[in-house]
Write a structure and sequence with these properties.
The complex is a heterodimer. By secondary structure, chain A is mostly helical. Chain A contains 18 helices and no strands. Chain B has a single domain, classed as Orthogonal Bundle (MetI-like fold), CATH 1.10.3720. The chains are: A mainly alpha, B mainly alpha.
């Protein structure tokens, strides 16, 4: 009888020795911060020693009330919703369709495509964010490509006009009007009477058939339409690059996830359906989607949790700017805690709001899956 | 038949074009980055698309030195290596207990870990920061009262301290890895553990001799998932570490890019330096990484 008892004690000891380190660090990083956040969001604590420093007390739901009436909070939430939407209704369907193309061998080299498309998911979003910032900048790659395209189109139009002069170089009002027709309004704003002024410019410029190339280049530089949406500095456009990069970054990961789970489906069902005349679209919608509804729901949950907590990518691209137009909840929380005069109770209230929104959206996802999802997920 | 076949060909063409479009969008920006990292700033301003006329390798030396990326990479290796190893060890330990040692506490504790998968550490960064800065004060006062410390004001166990940062990273990675390890250890037959018990082996011996060696596949999975997560982590290290000598690579890149806004050549070189370690890691372990991701272990 002594042995089993000793065994029991040893068993309990071993259990707690094995579990305690993990539990301790879990409490350190998740458990206590949540409790602390709830308490501080209801308090007037604002820095200093929590124990034995300046006294602070629980003052109630003031911070939450403040948040409800705070336009910045709702604005940040709106931007988060954009990111949630582009994630759930962008990354997931796109990843799913690409996975299906590979799974059904509609495209070959499936392994290769997957290997390439996963790359962004493994690289630091700080690096990628700065990279895309340089692409979308007002003097960045995208503007450069667009301006080259416009310049080439302008040049082609110019060539056409020169050809129609039948070997001469006779600048009439009509020719100038044609050239102006290739340009756009913004470039002509500098002129009060474009036709006569540009005609003067050409005539006094000393252009002829001998230096026709410099004529073309000068005209293109002067009049070719310029493309400058300047994404990063315009309030109504600045979320577009962020949403694009969000989509760009994670679609490959969902592709991998869906493709791996598609391979678990019994392909005899699919072959039978195809023989019965079902199209690939029907197979995807009626067989694959229901079979993977559980995986899709899991993907959506991770997507939602990730999107509501998006921080580093936006921090690298815009840091919430310009003038806070790309503000999201995590950045608003960060600003309240670490920039300028700290407001820790408010920051903690935002923290709790993020957690609450995540759980509500996750609950909705699970409800939808349970109600409409396939059975054997 | 003909209509169907034409539709099939058109469909295939669209499918290939889609794949190609997405692949080009993925690869081209990276190649663009690489090409421009060899250009001088004036050349970049004049031509953002073409190849450099003169390949300026000095951009790398300059960026490396100005950004002290040697230090940043060493720090990243320290954070990632220790935190990944710690995560694996603690997860397999806990997983062994949850899966093979029956206890009434398992349901609650293990359930809490699984719930933690849904919690993002970013949303808790403010309370976490406040918690560890208070702990720093408490630990400092404690050491002072023991007489092990002369002055507690500059003492930090978490803030600006590699050990604290590593512990936080281990904690942050635990929910998903404890889940993976527990489910894996469950698949190891009970009879192996029972036989060893009958032979008189203690639980520690069983852990070292049976469970840990058998858990190598799941440990690898946890490793390939955890390493990029920690290496790329930004939100936490950004608030916990302010000392330049302790900064990780993402922090170093961001700081460099903020101070070198007009030196495009070096900026691109720094981004390439930031991109390379994980790209090489991916090339070396691609199969394992994608297998791990598709195991449902995603956190994005």
């Amino acid at each position: 009888m002594v042995l089993p008892l000793r065994g029991k004690v040893e068993k309990a000891q071993a259990y707690w020795v094995f579990v305690t380190p993990a539990v301790f660090l879990y409490l350190l990083v998740f458990g206590f911060p949540i409790v602390l956040s709830v308490i501080l969001s209801l308090s007037n604590y604002n820095g200093g020693k929590m124990f034995g420093g300046d006294p602070w007390t629980i003052v109630g739901f003031q911070q939450y009330q403040k948040l409800v009436g705070d336009p910045n909070f709702w604005f940040a939430l709106k931007n988060n919703v954009y990111i949630v939407l582009v994630s759930v209704f962008g990354q997931i369907p796109l990843g799913f369709i690409l996975a299906y193309l590979i799974y059904r061998k509609i495209v070959r080299w499936g392994e290769g495509w997957q290997a390439i498309l996963y790359v962004p998911a493994i690289i630091s979003v700080i690096v990628l964010g700065i990279m895309w910032k340089l692409v979308f900048a007002s003097n960045g790659l995208l503007a450069d490509i667009m301006n080259h395209t416009y310049a080439n189109a302008f040049m082609a139009g110019l060539n056409h006009i020169i050809q129609s002069m039948n070997g001469g170089f006779n600048i009439t009002d009509d020719v100038v009007k044609q050239i102006i027709g290739l340009s756009n309004k913004d470039n002509l704003q500098a002129f009060s009477d474009p036709v006569s002024e540009i005609k003067d410019l050409i005539v006094t410029g000393g252009y002829s058939l001998q230096n026709i190339d410099s004529f073309k280049i000068d005209m293109t530089n002067l009049l070719s339409p310029k493309w400058s949406p300047d994404f990063m500095n315009k309030a109504d456009l600045s979320m577009i690059p962020i949403m694009f990069v969000t989509l760009w970054c994670w679609t490959g990961m969902y592709l991998i996830l869906f493709h791996a789970n598609m391979q678990k489906i019994d392909d005899q069902i699919i072959e039978a359906a195809r023989i019965d005349g079902a199209s690939e679209m029907q197979v995807m919608w009626n067989i694959i989607v229901p079979n993977l509804s559980g995986v899709i729901a899991n993907a959506a949950i991770l997507c939602i949790a990730g999107s509501l907590n998006t921080f580093a990518l936006i921090w690298a691209m815009t840091a919430g700017g310009p003038m806070n137009v790309t503000q999201v909840l995590a950045i608003y929380m960060y600003q309240n805690a670490f920039i300028g005069a700290p407001n820790f109770p408010l920051a903690n209230a935002i923290s709790m709001a993020i957690v609450a929104f995540s759980f509500v959206l996750i609950g909705v996802t699970l409800y939808i899956e349970r109600k409409y999802g396939g059975k054997d997920a | 038949m003909i209509i169907q076949r034409t539709a099939g060909v058109v469909g295939k063409a669209i499918a290939y074009l889609t794949m190609l479009l997405f692949s080009v969008m993925t690869v081209y920006p990276v190649i663009w980055l690489l090409i421009n990292s060899f250009k001088s700033t004036p050349e970049y301003m004049a031509d953002k698309i073409g190849l450099p006329k003169e390949w300026i390798v000095a951009n790398y030396a300059g960026a490396w030195k100005l950004g002290s990326f040697d230090m940043a990479i060493i720090n990243s290796i320290i954070y990632t290596g220790f935190a990944a190893a710690g995560t694996i060890l603690l997860s397999v330990l806990a997983g062994f207990a949850f899966a093979k040692i029956s206890s009434k506490a398992t349901k609650f504790i293990y359930g809490s870990f699984v719930l933690g998968i849904l919690l993002s550490i970013t949303s808790l960064m403010v309370p976490l920061y406040l918690e560890v800065s208070q702990l720093d004060k408490v630990i400092g006062d404690l050491l002072l009262s023991f007489g092990w410390l002369k002055d507690a004001r500059d003492f930090h166990f978490f803030y600006n301290n590699r050990i604290g940062m590593i512990l936080i990273y281990i904690g942050a990675g635990l929910p998903i890895s404890v889940y993976l390890c527990t489910e894996y250890v469950k698949s190891i037959p009970d009879s192996l553990v029972e036989a060893a018990r009958i032979d008189g082996a203690g639980y520690f011996q069983i852990f070292w001799r049976i469970i840990l060696p058998m858990a190598t596949p799941i440990a690898t999975t946890v490793a390939v998932l955890t390493v990029p997560n920690i290496w790329n982590e930004f939100a936490l290290v950004n608030i916990i570490v302010s000392d330049n000598d302790l900064k990780s690579l993402p922090l170093g890149i961001l700081r460099f890019s903020g101070t070198m806004t007009t030196d495009y050549g070096k900026q691109f070189a720094a981004l390439t330096i930031g991109l390379m370690p994980m790209l090489l890691f991916y090339i070396a372990f691609r199969k394992r990484i994608t297998a791990g991701v598709s195991g449902g272990a995603v956190k994005g």
